[in-house]
TrEMBL record:
Its cofactor is pyridoxal 5'-phosphate. It is an enzyme of class 2 (transferase). It comes from Lactiplantibacillus dongliensis. Its EC number is 2.6.1.-. The keyword Magnesium does not apply. The lineage of its organism: Bacteria, Bacillati, Bacillota, Bacilli, Lactobacillales. Residues 37-385 form the Aminotransferase class I/classII large domain. This is Aminotransferase. The keyword Transferase applies. GO terms for molecular function: transaminase activity.
């Protein structure tokens, strides 16, 4: 009798049973067909890629740059990436042997965690956080250790990190993401110095995802690689800074010895990223270093409007210092189960937000609101949320 595919599923990687499909994508698909719904769900810039960047890709295609690029990235892009990071954030990497061009920052996350973690290891993850790190750690056979930062303004404290390290001697790495998805909170220089002091004498990797660095409001972004250059695997890219999510170009930097090992996983999973996309990213990072500024000004105006408007409706948030998200507490009197609240809001008010429970411990009772949407859409969403909140008050 022929083997049935459902039987074969039982013979797949055991660790897949610990991983569930993305709540974020699943919920976004669930509510997508509600007529007239305003979606403030996905973290994708609503701007277009700059024209000069698109033209660089067109020129690359017309020049028949359609062959394999070097596995770690074209020399031109690695040089442009190194120059960008040095000029913007004062961190220095040798483009020849300390920079890898990845398939988006997510490709870098997979490469880094797969390279670092062995089965039985532990990885320290401050939450709420984008759930990708958790899934990849589990797939590597490691155990995520959650550090709930909700009581500390969503910033990991040195004391909390010290305690986690003392309690978890198998910890191999700590993950940082700032400015943060989902909270928009970031780490200032003093915060990073304090965390670095805790980690400096320990054989702990720091995976620092700084993809939103160019969308930092107020103070200039500071990288933890400035304080822990020998321990940090730094991730960045052009997805958020240049509205290039679909181009799938990320940057991963680390000391030479570490990069040599990272390159093995990258080589045998991705081989290389797309040649014309690399040409576009080279243009973005070299001749478009400040392309994010116009977008950032618009995001900041949206943040200010949405923060004030939702605060008046009872949705309290830590004021975002970067990225394009609000992480807001669901007001008392409304469903406190964040998934139930988001479903009800979508169907009754035709506004889609992401449940805070999707982002790990400390996220329940909150919602993530993406303001990578037009001001008109944000105003419509606020009007509908206001009507929804008022209707619930009337019922009481």
């Amino acid at each position: 009798m022929p083997i049935d595919s459902t039987t074969l599923v039982q013979h797949m990687n055991d660790r897949l049973s610990e991983i569930q499909p993305s709540d974020i994508l699943a919920f976004n698909a669930e509510i997508a067909n509600i007529p007239g719904i305003v979606r403030l769900t996905l973290g994708e810039p609503d701007f277009n890629t700059p024209e000069h960047v698109k033209q660089a890709a067109i020129d690359s295609i017309n020049n028949n740059e359609s062959h394999y690029a070097p596995s770690n990235g074209t020399p031109a892009l690695r040089q442009a990436a190194a120059n960008f990071l040095a000029k913007k954030y004062g961190v220095n990497y040798d483009p020849d042997n300390e920079v890898i061009i990845t398939a988006g920052a997510t490709g870098g996350i997979y490469t880094a965690l797969s390279s670092i973690l062995n089965p039985g290891d532990e990885v320290l993850i401050p939450t709420p956080i984008f759930p990708l790190y958790i899934a990849i750690a589990k797939l590597a056979g490691a155990t995520p250790v959650f550090m709930d930062t909700s009581a500390n303004g969503f910033v990991l404290s040195p004391e909390q990190l010290k305690q986690a390290l003392a309690d978890h001697p198998k910890a191999k790495a700590v993950v940082l993401n700032f400015p943060s998805n989902p909270t928009g909170v970031t780490y200032r220089a003093a915060d990073l110095k304090a965390l670095a002091a805790v980690l400096a004498d320990k054989p702990i990797f720091v995976l620092s995802d700084e993809i939103y660095s160019e969308l930092t409001y107020g103070e200039t972004h500071v990288s933890i690689a400035s304080y822990l250059p020998e321990q940090t695997i730094l991730l960045n890219g052009v997805s958020k800074s240049h509205a290039m999510t679909g181009w799938r170009i990320g940057i991963m930097c680390a000391p030479k010895a570490i990069t040599a090992q990272l390159g093995k996983i990258h080589q045998f999973t991705v081989t290389t990223t797309t040649a014309n996309a690399q040409a576009a990213a080279t243009e973005a990072l070299s001749k478009g270093m400040d392309d994010a500024q116009t977008m950032k000004q618009e995001y900041q105006a949206r943040r200010d409007y949405l923060y004030e408007a939702l605060n008046k409706l009872g949705f309290k948030s830590a004021k975002p210092e970067g990225a394009f998200y609000l992480f807001s507490k669901i007001p008392a009197g409304l469903p406190q189960d964040s998934m139930a609240f988001c479903r009800e809001l979508a169907h009754e008010a035709r506004v889609a937000l992401i449940p805070g429970s999707s982002f790990g411990p400390g996220g329940e009772g909150y919602v993530r609101i993406s303001y990578a949407a037009s001001m008109d859409s944000l105003k419509t969403a606020v009007e509908r949320i206001a009507t929804y909140v008022a209707s619930k008050a009337e019922v009481k």
